[in-house]
Design brief:
Immunoglobulin-like, 3 helices
Length: 228
Amino acid sequence: MESRPASRTFSVLSLCAILLCWGSDPITADQDVFVYSEGEALLTCNYTGDRVVNSIKWSNKSSGKIIAERSTGKDYISETRITFMESSGKKDGSIKINPVHGWDNGTYTCSYDVQGKMPTEKTITLSLIPRPPTTIAPTTKPLSTKSACTPCREARNCWKILIAILVIFVLCIIAVIIFYLYKTGNFCNKQKPRNDEFDEEVQKFRNSRKDEEDQKGSESKAIKKPEP
């Protein structure tokens, strides 16, 4: 009767030993990844155990299609836009999808085949989110930003422009008048007003002198005339 408990204890210990030998080593991976359409998606999956990794495999859980696999041989990549982040190692099995399309939206499985252990895997969900609308900055100021006194300022500016035009017009007329007087000779050669009394005296002096000369001429003719 006492041998049965001992046999049961041995069986439990043996089962625990088997589970410890074939148990899963830890794998770290993202659970949810969000990315814009036509953007770049990074699906992270790493093996942190001490055993040798035989292979790493990525598959689309919805379709069951293998999209990437790395083993001792050559890497398998279903599309050129999918690449492994690590160049040759197998412990870091992270992959990059660039660009991401609408059909990439879904659930993916990262599976590790480790030497001496049962295959282990992690599930990652890739979700596409819409891009925010692009806003274009206005190139002109809105009408509401104008000051209430803008019409008043514009009216004052109009009056200033009209006054300036009027002044220029008047200056042009004055310049034309001066040019006309200069050409006709009436601008610089102004005759001085004569004194009437002075003119009369000069005329009398000239007349008297002429009379004297006539008288002397007649007397000289009478003296030179011979007697008969």
